[in-house]
Write a structure and sequence with these properties.
This protein is mainly α and 447 residues long. The chain has 16 helices and two strands. It has helices spanning 14-28, 51-56, 59-71, 87-101, 106-124, 192-197, 236-303, 312-315, 317-320, 323-331, 352-364, 369-379, 381-384, 389-395, 405-413, 430-442, and strands at residues 158-164, 174-181. The protein is rod-shaped. Residues 137-187, 206-215 and 306-315 have low confidence and may be disordered.
Length: 447
């Protein structure tokens, strides 16, 4: 058993379809003075419906925008046909599609486009050829071939009227039938003789006798027009005012569309610039990070080159640069001997064997902390691999042309003074600080 069939979409109304067909006929018979099938590069007539416009705004917006572009309606000028040919077939196709699929827009489509296109086609010189009539002349002198014609019926059209008698004494309702001969106008006998003459079924008398003319034929009816439904005629001035109003509305709508497209274009450009800026920033960050990593790997290879083959003495450079500290550290056992001290982590560069190379390189490099550190790391990475320019900067005097006084004293001692880590303990006792300062000042020390 076949399934239920889907209901068909309603078709185009007959009146509207007739106007569309009339427009199609006019477009087919445009004058030959108009160019035929202009090349695509030089033609403005590209009749199609944009899928994006249909999806966002609907069929009416899509066809309205397309026809405004093709016929240049944004210039507020009447429609002017500039070519003829196969492209106008696409115009009829999209009009029929909108008329069928958008019933709510049919009236607008007809008023705004179909009727005006018909007027434009007529003004361009389009003329629909008239059909030839077949001649039924009986002239014997006519030498042309005549088409066979149907013979007229010899029967006469008659109207029968049944006369109802008002006389109750006769005892019969039907007194007689009177017939009118349409051709001769003779009155036939009435009564029983009339029934014998004609036994055909008699037509019923029409209720509205005003439809009968003198010959007995019904009056021919006229098709109703818009004036029968309340439409009113307007003057030429009123028509011009309405046309100007419609042009103004269309002009404003075109301006709104152009403004909206301009805003969308600006928004797209701003978004494109923002995305390009973000993409460029990310690229620079990745490039910078890659460069830093590459520089770090190179520096690590330079500094730590060969450290995997270093001996035990080179690995314990911090311990070897502080020989005096090993003696007392060994006595610390964590019990009565005191807390066990960890191994030295920082190298004592004031040791004579380490300071000799530093003192030799510094004057040659114009006391530049950066170049001093790099040169020592490159020449002797095992000994100076952990030396940084910040450390060297603390050794140089403020003038930048020699070692500071504090550095020279540390070189004489072969190490820097170790801090107690208890700075600020005597701050609550200013008297003790003052006395201690005087005492240390005498021997050349600062508190």
């Amino acid at each position: 058993m076949a399934g239920p069939t889907e209901p068909k979409a309603p078709g185009i109304p007959t009146a509207l379809l007739a106007r569309i067909n009339h427009l199609q006929l006019l477009l087919k018979h445009l004058p030959e003075s108009l160019p035929l099938d202009v090349p695509d590069s030089a033609s403005m007539y590209q009749f199609y419906l944009d899928d994006n416009d249909i999806k966002e705004e609907g069929l009416w917006y899509a066809i309205n925008r397309r026809l405004e572009i093709c016929f240049e309606r944004f210039r507020c000028k009447p429609i002017e046909l500039k070519e003829r040919g196969q492209r106008l077939t696409g115009l009829i196709q999209i009009i029929k599609r909108v008329a069928k699929e958008a019933p709510q827009s049919r009236q607008l489509l007809q008023d705004i486009w179909i009727e005006k296109l018909i007027v434009a086609a007529k003004e361009s010189g389009a003329k629909v050829p008239t059909k030839r009539k077949v001649s039924n002349s009986d002239d014997k002198g006519d030498s042309q071939m005549r088409l066979p014609t149907t013979k007229k019926s010899k029967s006469k059209d008659r109207l029968a009227f049944i006369i109802i008698s008002d006389d109750e004494s006769t005892g019969s309702e039907v007194q007689g039938v009177t017939e009118l001969n349409n051709d001769e106008g003779k009155v036939l006998p009435s009564g029983p003789l009339a029934k014998k003459l004609d036994n055909r079924p008699q037509p019923v008398q029409p209720t509205n006798t005003s439809l009968l003319v003198a010959s007995g034929q019904p009056k021919q009816l006229c098709q109703a027009n818009l004036f029968a439904f309340g439409a009113k005629k307007i003057s030429k001035e009123e028509a011009q005012v309405q046309d100007a109003k419609l042009k103004e509305e269309w002009r404003q709508r075109v301006q709104e569309v152009q403004k909206r497209e301009a805003r969308e274009k600006v928004a797209r450009e701003e978004r494109k610039q923002m995305l390009n800026r973000i993409r460029q920033q990310r690229h620079r960050e990745r490039k910078k990070l890659s460069k830093e990593r590459r520089a770090g790997r190179v520096a690590k290879d330079v500094i730590l080159n060969g450290q995997s083959n270093m001996g035990a003495e080179a690995q314990n450079l911090a311990e070897l640069s502080r020989p005096d500290g090993n003696a007392w550290k060994k006595k610390r056992n964590g019990k009565n001997g005191g807390t066990v001290q960890p191994r030295h982590q920082r190298t004592n560069y004031f040791h004579p064997f380490l300071w000799a190379a530093i003192a030799r390189v510094a004057p040659r490099l114009a006391w530049s902390a950066t170049f001093i550190a790099r040169t020592l790391q490159r020449e002797q990475p095992k000994l100076y691999g952990r030396l940084r320019k910040g450390t060297v900067q603390h050794w140089i005097s403020k003038t930048g042309k020699g070692w500071s006084k504090k550095t020279l004293k540390n070189v004489e001692r072969r190490h820097a003074l170790a801090g107690s880590g208890q700075k600020g303990v005597l701050t609550p006792y200013p008297e003790i600080v003052e006395v201690s300062g005087l005492t240390y000042g005498r021997i050349g020390l600062k508190l």
